[in-house]
Amino acid sequence: MATVSLARCPEYSRDAIRGRMMRSLEEIGFDPNRFRGARVAMKPNLLLPAAPDKAIVTHPVFFEAALDIVIEHGGRPIVVESPALASVEKALRRSGYGPALDRTGVGVADATGTAIVHNERGVAFKRFEIIREVCDAEFIINLPKMKTHGLTYFTGAVKNYFGLVPGLEKAQWHLRAPTAAEFTSFLLDFYGAIRDGFSPRKTLLNIMDGICALEGEGPGPGGRARFVGVMLASEDAVALDAVASAVVGLDREKIPTLAIAESRGLGVGALENITIVGESVSSCAVSGFVPNRSTVRSGAPRWPFTSSFVKNLVLERPVPDARLCTRCHQCRDICPARAISTTAKNEKTPRFDYALCIRCYCCMEICPEGAIELQKGIVKRIIMRRSVGKNTIEPMR
After folding, report:
1. Considering 251, 284, 317, which residue would you say is the last residue of a domain?
2. Torsion-angle region of residue 6: left (phi > 0), alpha (psi -120 to 50) or beta?
3. Pairing relation of β-strands 39-44 and 139-143?
4. Per the omega criterion (within 30 degrees of 0), is the bond before 221 cis?
5. Could you give the number of structural domains in the chain?
6. Does an H or E element contain 232, and which?
7. Which residues 6+ apart lie within 8 Å of 391 measured at CB?
8. Are residues 215 and 174 in the same domain?
9. 221-239 tens-digit pLDDT
10. Most buried residue, 44, 126, 215, 274, by most Cβ within 10 Å?
11. Is residue 275 located within the same domain as residue 357?
């Protein structure tokens, strides 16, 4: 059995969050005095530099409350994070973390220094490059944001550990594991390495910011902020994700990390096997939470969907919107398949080569303007046109 604390948390008030966070730790049986004298790696979700009210990053006040608890109990915290393109320092400052870091003097790990961690029980992958300073920590406090995702449907505690992979190396993992099924397998192999690959094992503590979540076309600027008003805590990242996704009513069958993680012995994914303390799921549940519309799911067969011809017929593809695009070319820089090229003369957006595109949607995640949207595949557009009787089909927004 796993234990998850589920708490109501209606606002971003540092004192209120800190008090409720302390109670949540007590509910899951974690004594914060264990931090005394220990190195504690603090891992927020900093996908990209974004204003806190956009709900793309872990809110800085939520992070600060956790940071204060560590410091007050004698821990030695350090921020460990590596956004895909921006420097972690830039992401921290633009996302509102500056005042807390200045007040406490807490340092930030050098994301260019790396180390190797292994997972000998990994199913598809066994060797991973991570931020070196993670290795020196006795505790990892994982502070995920409750968000939807185009490839994995839901991004929570398990996927937030992916941020320990340095910068552009993330895009390379999308290339090595291009389908949702393969990427899910990678995520779980990686989580297994963080969970079990160190000697001695590190204590993982997961505390989710679900006060203001991201629905729709997450996990980046394409999504919409949605008030949910909860905080979750657990030492089991899989169980925390199971409870969090139930609160917002997401389809558990579309979150492959849950069942697969349980079958691999990495956590508890079934609600009936989780002890939920504090509030109940039903008392915190919200209705009408909008999932990501992407149809790429883990159960989809690799062939023939990996052929460019069939992919363009059936699958959604990322399309830049000339009205919003500023031609910053971050989409080009992040693309692991090199499917995006520099904007040509007299053109308003970068060029996308859909024969090369692997549908990882990294470009959508990273676009600071939310200028890349999903357009339905040709087959689906034809079906919709016939069923609705229209001559034109608008891109999905």
Report:
1. 284
2. beta
3. parallel
4. no
5. 2
6. strand 223-234
7. 385
8. yes
9. 999 999 999 999 999 999 9
10. 44
11. no
